[in-house]
């Protein structure tokens, strides 16, 4: 794994060739959300696409301001899929709301990407690998 960037209890990193990892812990403050989503945008710069691998095993909640920063980060990142693992029901609902908001207010088809939930990190990674193969064969 490459360098891990920490923002309070939250962390993010990049894995070649195209995965941005996020670990969300406890209650995510607006400032933490703003900072790690800004890093997500930075890590994706110059890349044709990225996938998000999100660990929500220790996630509790995020403020409405934090959800706004998450939405902005998703809108500015060339995401082709989000794989979330170990998410509780609250995390699932919040994730679906944020992604639906991004997709609802844009006609840009590249902002329409799947969000999937998995019980394990291995299953989430396998799904990313499959999506990558699908995108490569469609190109």
Short account of what is shown:
The protein has 139 residues and is of the alpha/beta class.
Overall description:
This protein is of the alpha/beta class. It has a single domain (5-134), classed as Rossmann fold. The chain has helices at 30-44, 64-75, 89-104, 121-138, and strands at 5-7, 10-15, 19-28, 50-62, 79-85, 115-118. A six-stranded mixed β-sheet has the order 1-2-3-4-5-6, sandwiched between helices. 35% of the residues are buried. The model has no long low-confidence stretch (mean pLDDT 91).
Task: List how many beta strands DSSP finds.
Answer: 6
Taking the sheet with the most strands, its summary is: 6 strands, mixed
C-alpha Rg (nearest Å): 14 Å
* Number of distinct helices: 4
Determine the CATH superfamily: SpoIIaa-like domains
Helix fraction, binned, reads 40-55%
- By CATH reckoning, the class would read Alpha Beta
How many domains is the backbone divided into?
Answer: 1
Estimate the mean pLDDT confidence.
91
What fold name stands as the CATH topology?
Rossmann fold
Unreliable spans are: none
What's the end-to-end separation, in Å? 28 Å
Strand composition percent: 25-35%
* String of helices and strands: EEEHEHEHEH
The appropriate CATH architecture is 3-Layer(aba) Sandwich
Oligomer: single chain
